[in-house]
């Protein structure tokens, strides 16, 4: 089932998410729905806050080309233990912030600890594009967006576009949920 993706401006996107355990209701269905939602929106990663849930869960599928090994994983209660290497810029976007892409600096290698969908604990090193996607999704469960990493000037230049997204003045090929607007009295 495809879930609506929460748009920029919704408070859930700024929350530090809560860990879950094996008893989380309908977890396997949620994971499946998150992959369906991500694929429908042509994304490579999706975090639970982006579907309205403030829990420490995200999914990644970088759909690597033939020369690389495919990278499709579920991350539950993830913790980035280390980021190493020279930071490099990459033009990032976000399903919750459609039509905005900006260069973001991130380190190329990470060491991450997480549980998979079968509650197996992993600690592994990841590099390159998969590491970048993980860092982006990890930021979501920490209540951060890629726009938080931009300079004040860039944020100011994007302000009206971001406001339009939060008001629902955007068209996407996927279903979105927009923040409730306060009623004027």
TrEMBL record:
EC number: 3.5.1.88
Keyword DNA repair: no
Binding residue positions for Fe cation: 94, 136, 140
Enzyme class: hydrolase
Keywords (A to Z) from UniProt: Hydrolase, Iron, Metal-binding, Protein biosynthesis
Cofactor requirement: Fe(2+)
Cofactor binding note of this UniProt entry: Binds 1 Fe(2+) ion.
Catalytic activity: N-terminal N-formyl-L-methionyl-[peptide] + H2O = N-terminal L-methionyl-[peptide] + formate
Active site: 137
GO molecular function per UniProt: peptide deformylase activity
PANTHER family: PEPTIDE DEFORMYLASE
Primary role: Removes the formyl group from the N-terminal Met of newly synthesized proteins. Requires at least a dipeptide for an efficient rate of reaction. N-terminal L-methionine is a prerequisite for activity but the enzyme has broad specificity at other positions.
Entry's family note: Belongs to the polypeptide deformylase family.
Protein name from the UniProt record: Peptide deformylase
């Amino acid at each position: 089932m495809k879930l609506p993706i929460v748009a920029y401006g919704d408070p859930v996107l700024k929350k530090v998410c809560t860990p879950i355990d094996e008893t989380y209701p309908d977890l396997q269905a949620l994971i499946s729905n998150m992959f369906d939602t991500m694929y429908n929106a042509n994304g490579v990663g999706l975090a639970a806050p982006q579907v309205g849930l403030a829990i420490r869960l995200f999914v990644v599928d970088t759909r690597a080309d033939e020369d690389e090994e495919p990278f499709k994983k579920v991350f539950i209660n993830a913790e980035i233990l280390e980021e190493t290497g020279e930071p490099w810029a990459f033009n990032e976007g976000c399903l919750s912030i459609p039509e905005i892409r900006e260069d973001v600096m991130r380190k190329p290698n990470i060491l991450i600890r997480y549980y998979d969908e079968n509650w197996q604990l992993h600690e592994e090193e990841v590099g390159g594009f998969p590491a970048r996607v993980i860092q982006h999704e990890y930021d979501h469960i920490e209540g951060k967006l890629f726009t938080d990493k931009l300079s004040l000037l860039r944020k100011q230049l994007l302000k009206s576009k971001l406001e339009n997204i939060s008001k629902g003045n955007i068209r996407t090929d996927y279903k979105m949920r927009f923040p409730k607007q306060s009623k004027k009295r």
